[in-house]
């Protein structure tokens, strides 16, 4: 498994509550430092709902991209989903909570599934995309940083151990959110 792209986002005007978002991520060349709170040069503007230690890095995967490209009938560029890392050969829904990865010079631990919001719907140009993303059950993963270090496209990704006491998959975590918040897929789409 390899890193296909490393993406960071700059503030960009959107119709979000603050009027700005960093969801428009673009691939960068060369090594990027992955620190405790995320990637160097990446801007998280809505810190109430995004970022922090538990959402330091957002990871999406090539099989999930291929699935979406087929469904949407168009190619998708790295960074489309607001991810920091695009990885090959892994479907995000099957990843275990607490799974640890060595990614380049960093070590990451899977913390939770991504829950879509209206900013993603705006990014995709589809007001109904929150529900589509929820129904697709391909959430991608948020990871915490256990060991800081550089990461770049082409770096190997090695699966390590699973954190003690962690149970379930990203899909289990994603579905549990909707059990606790049954109207979220429609409320967040408004």
From TrEMBL:
Cited InterPro entries: Benzoxazolinone_Detox_Enz, MoCF_Sase_C, Pyrv_Knase-like_insert_dom_sf
SUPFAM superfamilies membership: PK beta-barrel domain-like
Signal peptide: none
Pfam families documented for this protein: MOSC (PF03473)
All copies of domain MOSC, residue ranges: 26-160
GO molecular function, one term: molybdenum ion binding
Database matches in PANTHER family: PROTEIN YIIM
Descriptive protein name: MOSC domain-containing protein
Species whose genome carries this gene: Deinococcus metalli
